[in-house]
Amino acid sequence: MQLSYKLLLHKEADDNYTVVVPALPGCVTYGKDIDEAISMAKEAIELYIEELQSRNEYQH
User: For 21-50, b where at least 16 C-beta lie within 10 A, e where not — what string?
Assistant: First the structure.
């Protein structure tokens, strides 16, 4: 099963990007450009869900 999450990208003053995943509290990452930021967000989401699963807190 594939899930979709909304990403909020914010361009910082240093031209890097901050990414927040609103549906996953505390899931925040960064990238030097949009492509890297999205890639880092995908990894952060996977790790976030793996952690929830390890604590039996994940329901889909």
Answer: beeeeebebebeeeeebbebbeebbeebbe
